[in-house]
Design brief:
- It is built from five helices and eight strands, in the order ααβββαβββαββα.
- The chain is α+β, with helices and mostly antiparallel strands.
- The protein is elongated and about 85 Å long.
Length: about 200
Amino acid sequence: MIDAELFDRLLAFSQHMAQLHEVDTLLRDVLNAAVQLSGAEEGFLALVNGDQVMNLVAQRAAQTVDPQPLSAALQALVHEVATQRTPLEAPPWFLVPLLSPQEVLGVLGLQGVPHPQQARRVLAYLANQAAVFLENRILTTQLESQVSARTAELLASEARYRALLKTSPDGILVTDIHEQIVLASQTAARLFGFARQRT
């Protein structure tokens, strides 16, 4: 059971996360919250992609430090957590996966936790929150990429369409559902004697 004070702090942190837009800021804040709320001596948060650790944020006590490469033993633990998709207690470390429905996005690890039972709950909660944020960021990035690609396709199609209207030797008229002319090629404008509004 999480006590009321810790619950309030986790809730406040969730509200803070909802305001974040930058992934690096989120990763640092999640790790900082995990270390502070659990009382851990140090921790790390690593994003993973398959078998590779892609991004690492390190934390010792209450201060962020420059990320150092994980030891081979710790990399093996991260790989095990990512492969098994389950938390792992390997004293002095406790590691939790950041899970999306399709994959493991990262691993959050703490060392030197004074109250392991409470730390497990805090870590599980923060890992779930971080995973949701990262999943949303991934989906948003994919959607933005698809929108950009489709917009480029539409602009290219429109350019071809406009070039056709401008250079066609045939008279081309486009009407709306009320049979009002909304677009005419240069040839059609010349043949019917009216000014083109738009091509």
